[in-house]
Specification:
The complex is a heterodimer of chains A (189) and B (235).
Chain A: E1 2-3, H1 16-19, E2 36-44, E3 54-59, E4 85-89, E5 95-101, E6 106-107, E7 113-114, E8 117-124, E9 131-136, H2 154-157, E10 163-164, E11 171-173, E12 176-177
Parallel strand pairs in A: 2-11, 2-12
Antiparallel strand pairs in A: 2-5, 3-4, 3-8, 6-7, 8-9, 10-11
Chain B: E1 9-10, H1 42-45, E2 74-83, E3 93-98, E4 123-127, E5 133-139, E6 144-146, E7 152-154, E8 157-162, E9 171-176, H2 195-199, E10 204-205, E11 216-219, E12 222-224
Parallel strand pairs in B: 2-11, 2-12
Antiparallel strand pairs in B: 2-5, 3-4, 3-8, 6-7, 8-9, 10-11
Classes of the chains: A mainly beta (189), B mainly beta (235).
Chain lengths: 189, 235
């Protein structure tokens, strides 16, 4: 069954005046005893030029794989107050940077466990609706059996997996390629 | 394990496509590879739920955020946020931003040669109530030129950002005004192929919220995605 909801429209070039108050690039508040991980990258357009007016929104589970949301009854309520939301604009060099914790695996469909991941919305001028993608963590054995990664052609799967940065385990790099040979995998919503 | 109820996919034509060549900025930014269909999981049916304490009392009233009154025609913009089944979306964050009455945004990249208004920022936030109602007081934004094509002008609009109950219901859209002669020429408005869906973007004049001696009322209801009727078995 399909529906008719209000259509999306672009955020336009000036969304930062409306989004700034809720920017949140440090997601670690309330996280319990886990190592921080910093994720940085760029958003690149069809000419491989950095986009200077994009914003990412992040949604993720806590270190135990639990979402701070009433519909996640999968695990006992976590003791901390981890929220799991980030709103991260790119800077005037086209780079974004945020700090978080690696989430635990969350329940998937059909009784499987999803590999640790963040879900990401990307907004910018030129996008009439948000792009939806995911960030997975490098060298996690759970990636090999993840139900969502398995929906993606093997040759493109790597666009969803961050790569290790200058400090392995602490810094990750993940770029969004809107077009081109390394075009990021995007999902419908 | 509780079964998960996902959200409906939009009917064909009711949402814009990424590539819409009449909107020039989409050409280098729209994905070219097929979009991968993703069945909703726990990651999509959950999402950030914000607390009302994050807002100041004046956040809903864009005419009261400075020492003086902004220039322009005062309006009240209100409506309900509902899902596709008509259920209210309760206690949910709504963000807006807009140009001032002259058609100028308070943004460093806006080069339109129209005056800024020291008494108008153009940013508001509020929450829906338990029946899904929201309300903003603001001024009617001006139309403004852009460089998409020769002599291009955006119709008057207010940007809306909504979260709803889940990552899956996130929506950013624009509200337009009834009878705006620029609508038929606007590639962003016309990016929605389905006429009935497109017209959901146009507010309507509303006597019920028109405030005597103060402000004209415009009603803008917003419909977020509805849920699938049948739970999908998770386990």
């Amino acid at each position: 069954m399909s529906g008719r909801s209000t259509p999306s429209q672009t955020v336009g070039p000036f969304f930062s005046i409306g989004f700034a108050w809720l920017e949140r690039a440090d997601l670690t508040e309330g996280a319990s005893g886990q190592g921080r991980v910093s994720i940085c990258g760029r958003v690149l357009d069809g000419d491989e030029k950095p986009v200077l007016d994009a914003v990412l929104e992040i949604w993720q589970a806590d270190a135990d794989g639990r979402y701070a949301h009433g519909e996640d009854a999968s695990k006992p309520m976590a003791a901390g107050k981890f929220f799991g939301f980030g709103r991260v604009p790119v800077n005037d060099r086209g780079e974004f940077f945020f700090t978080t914790i690696k989430p635990g695996g969350v329940d998937g469909r059909d009784g499987t466990c999803q590999a640790p991941h963040l879900v990401v919305s990307v907004f910018m001028r030129g996008l009439l609706k948000r792009l939806i993608t995911r960030i997975y963590f490098p060298s996690d054995p759970a990636n090999d059996t993840d139900g969502v990664l398995s929906l993606v052609a093997a040759a493109r799967r790597g666009t969803l997996i961050a790569r290790s940065g200058s400090e392995p385990g602490k810094t990750l790099v993940w770029d969004v390629h809107l077009q081109g040979d390394n075009e990021t995998v995007f999902f419908d919503g | 394990m509780n079964p998960l109820r996902g959200y409906r996919k939009p009917a064909p034509g009711t949402q814009p496509e990424y590539l819409h060549p009449a909107y020039a900025s989409s050409v280098k930014r729209a994905p070219t590879q097929p979009i991968v269909t993703l069945p909703d999981s726990l990651s999509e049916i959950t999402g950030p739920i914000f607390r009302k304490e994050v807002l100041s009392a004046k956040a809903f009233d864009l005419t009261q955020q400075h020492k003086g009154a902004p220039l322009g025609e005062r309006i009240v913009v209100s409506g309900r946020v509902l899902d596709e089944d008509g259920r209210p979306v309760r206690d949910s964050l709504v963000e807006i931003w807009q140009a001032n009455a002259s058609g100028r945004y308070l943004h460093k990249w806006d080069q339109h040669d129209a005056p800024l208004d020291p008494n108008f920022t153009g940013v508001g936030h509020t929450f829906t109530d338990e029946d899904g109602h929201y309300r903003f007081a603001t001024i009617r934004p001006g139309a403004y030129p852009w460089r998409n094509h020769a002599n291009a002008w955006r119709p008057q609009h207010i940007h809306f950002s909504l979260f709803g109950p889940a990552f899956a219901t996130r929506l950013v859209t624009q509200m337009y005004f009834p009878g705006d002669p620029l609508l038929e020429f606007d590639p962003i408005f016309n990016s929605v192929a389905d006429e009935a869906a497109r017209n959901l973007l146009i507010s309507r004049f509303d006597w019920a919220t028109t405030t005597p001696e103060i402000a004209l009322g415009f009603r803008f209801d917003i419909i977020l995605r509805g849920r699938n009727a049948t739970p999908m078995e998770n386990r």
